[in-house]
Specification:
Blueprint (H helix, E strand, L loop, with lengths): L3 H7 L1 H11 L7 E6 L5 E6 L2 E3 L2 E6 L4 H8 L2 E6 L9 E10 L3 H10 L9 E16 L7 E8 L4
Antiparallel strand pairs: 1-2, 1-5, 3-4, 4-7, 5-6, 6-7, 7-8
């Protein structure tokens, strides 16, 4: 698993598209999938933060997603849909890690474009795979997805 910076160096064009889709509304908006204790999926809206070339989420101390990620660090993150019928999609998955370094926490908190609270738990999203889906031929019989993919170790 790699941090956002390493992914962005490996595939700058895909990282730029992803950043544009994750932050298309100014504030980061995405859906985070985690794994519940019983193994079922759980889906949460989150506000990702790009700070010091890392991708992070801040999680409320009593949030079920906090307990999910502490127990099983696997996640998937999907960008919010665009406000049009043929909207692009951006997806990434990997594992999270808790960040306890006060200097990193302060930097992420300062870079957050949403209302964040100092008591939130900071997780970095480490990346294993990424996919951008662009839709072509909207409104025609040839309507189809076109995928650009990246995975760790892929150059």
């Amino acid at each position: 698993m790699v941090p956002w910076k390493q992914f962005a160096v490996s595939n700058p064009s895909l990282a730029k598209v992803g950043e544009g889709l994750l932050f298309q509304y100014g504030v980061g908006l995405a859906f985070l999938a985690t794994i519940r204790k019983d193994g079922a999926p759980r889906l949460h809206p989150v506000c990702p933060v790009l700070s010091n070339a890392g991708l992070y989420i801040l999680v409320a101390p009593k949030s079920p997603k906090k307990w999910d990620l502490l127990r099983d660090a696997r996640y998937s993150l999907q960008s919010f849909p665009q406000d049009r019928p043929d909207s692009d999609e951006f997806y990434l998955s990997g594992k999270t890690r808790v960040i306890e370094d006060p200097s990193i926490s302060e930097s992420v908190f300062n870079d957050a474009k949403h209302h964040a609270s100092k008591d939130e738990v900071l997780f970095e999203l480490l990346i294993e795979r990424v996919m951008h889906t662009k839709w072509e031929g909207f409104g025609t019989p040839d309507y189809r997805p076109v995928h650009a993919k990246w995975s760790e170790g892929m150059e």
